Amino acid sequence: MRIYAILQQDKKVVVNDLAEKFGVTKMTIRRDLSFFEKQGIVKTSYGGAYLTSGASVEPSFQLKSVQMVDDKHLIGQKAAERVEDGDTIIIDCGTTALAFAQCLFDKKIMVITNSVPVVNLLKGRSNIKLIVAPGEYEDDTQGMVSFNTAEFFSTLHADKVFLSTQGINEQGELTVPKITDAHVKRALARAGRQKFLLADKSKFGQTFLAGHGQLSDFDVVISQSGISADVLTLLNGHCAELILADSVE
């Protein structure tokens, strides 16, 4: 999965270079690149591969789950600090949202979510009441993502909602690869009185097919230090409150 991180940074890779870097055979590298190609996120060529730039391309949940793991955990910890006993909270689908849920075990709360991994993580805990959103299961997000899901969230008024996204562009717009997912995220965001956006630095500077909100829609944005000066200016210009999870206070 480290290959994908290199692809994200360099946009292209060479099989021979990767085999030497990781001390594996060229066949092993080609197998990994073939796995990415089947997801539609790279195009392979003789001797290498390059990252596709399609606005509707989304990596699998499994692939996203091994990217920026430590950063997502720190963001999740900071977000969990804003959850109080007695809160009713909504948790979005996504790997950053799952990292946040992993920090809630000792909270006495109600959780409403459309994320199957979050349900599996929190089920059976006597201090957490779970409500699962209905709808059609979508494997790339491992959650319920359909118009029925959006309709369900449109009837709710939770204390806090914790949302993630796939991309945030230079205008502060939040975007995802799939139209239905954007529709669900808009409804989910409206369902919380206080809105939190959880976004690691890899999300900035990317634009996908469907917009679902603006940075200015959120009361709190939790990200990380190490973001560029341009992104920091963007965040400070749009956010009511910005938290950098790994900064030293």
TrEMBL record:
SMART domains xrefs: DeoRC (SM01134), HTH_DEOR (SM00420)
Gene3D superfamilies tied to this protein: 3.40.50.1360, Winged helix-like DNA-binding domain superfamily/Winged helix DNA-binding domain
Keyword tags: Transcription, Transcription regulation
Family matches, as SUPFAM superfamilies: NagB/RpiA/CoA transferase-like, Winged helix' DNA-binding domain
Superkingdom of origin organism: Bacteria
Record domain HTH deoR-type: where: 1-51
Keyword Zinc on entry: no
Entry annotated with the keyword Transcription: yes
Protein name: DeoR family transcriptional regulator
